[in-house]
Amino acid sequence: MKKLFFDKSTKLLICSDFDKHINGPTYDIYFNSKTGVEVLKEKDGFPEPFSLEFPSLLDIGIMGACPNDCSFCYQGSFKEPNMKLEHFKLLVDQIKDQTMQVALGGRGDPNKHENFKEIVQYCRDNNIAPSYTTSGNNLTDEEVENSKICGAVAVSNYDKPFTYTALKKFMDAGVKTNIHFVLTRSTIIDAYKILSGEDVWNNQIDLTRLNAIVFLLFKPQGKGKVLPHLSPTFDQLRKFSEMFIRSKTKFKVGADSCTVNYVQSTIKIEGFLKNCLDSCEGARMSCYVSPSMKFYPCSFCDPEKYNLSLLEKPLEYYWKADQFSSFRNKIKERPTRCPVGF
């Protein structure tokens, strides 16, 4: 279906073909699974929804272990088996009518999952757009081929030869390709350069074909708990925020909700941008599922506080449970503060 929307708050006119429609009690969601365009629109007489009746995005940790053993990994050193294909299908069967996208992740590269091809295909077969993040290390041509049906792929910014090789392989294959850039006290210096229009990679990446750079805030979680000195300072984040909203890049820039919270709390946001920025989406629009099918508001939550198994009760039950309601209330009370505590 082709729809035309005018957003009064942002004054944006949106026209797109949509192949998925969620008719909520007070809102509608329209989604184009090919382009990723998603429109959440309140129904006449109702305010813009603070949270949804069901998550529109699932972050699914299909990987249980990672050979890269990065010193700062927020997932920690814990290892478990990869998510079973039958469990992944069970999850997709629960969400297929109400969820638009899944982001595949976990402890390691999702493209190395033994059932990666079946996983992304099962998403598409059920009109869900899959995406994932990878280190790009030892990326095979077969994995790239299987990624062609993904909505997008992000390569983590390790600044290694395999980083540049992976980016080129994905872009050569026509895959919508992003870079995930973690903001630490030291890497944020390069982020300033990127936002000012500099090529910090010295022509090792064809930036004319890059879809976007997405900035992710370093979280002192997992192994990062003993590395709090890696967190950017308040002054650094303020400078980043000022440059972020005035980016001079030739490609798109984005940021995770954790970074956006700092953007809103460190500088004054007015006009158009004020209507474009939101607070944390955890337990409101999105959630996380671990390889063992445990359910969390987001992937940074303390596992000991959430012992919710999707092998015991359906996702919809937990979405309305006290643990998720409490998480939402924290966001309501302090919209620009992380409900986990970062």
Summarize the structure in words.
This protein is an alpha/beta fold and 342 residues long. It has two domains: 41 residues, no CATH class; 277 residues, Aldolase class I (TIM Barrel), CATH 3.20.20. The protein is 27% helix and 21% strand. The chain is built from ten helices and 14 strands. It is globular and about 50 Å long. The N and C termini lie far apart (42 Å).
CATH class of the largest domain: Alpha Beta
- Helical/strand content category: alpha/beta
Helix tally equals 10
Largest sheet, strands/sense/barrel? 9 strands, mixed
Strand order of the largest sheet: 12-11-10-9-8-7-6-13-14
Radius of gyration: 19 Å
Number of DSSP strand runs = 14
Order of helices and strands: EEEEEEHEHEHEHEHEHEHHEEHH
Compute the number of structural domains.
Answer: 2
What is the beta-strand fraction?
A: 15-25%
**The CATH topology of the largest domain:** TIM Barrel
Tell me the CATH architecture of the largest domain: Alpha-Beta Barrel
CATH superfamily of the largest domain: Aldolase class I
Name the poorly predicted regions: none
What's the shape? globular
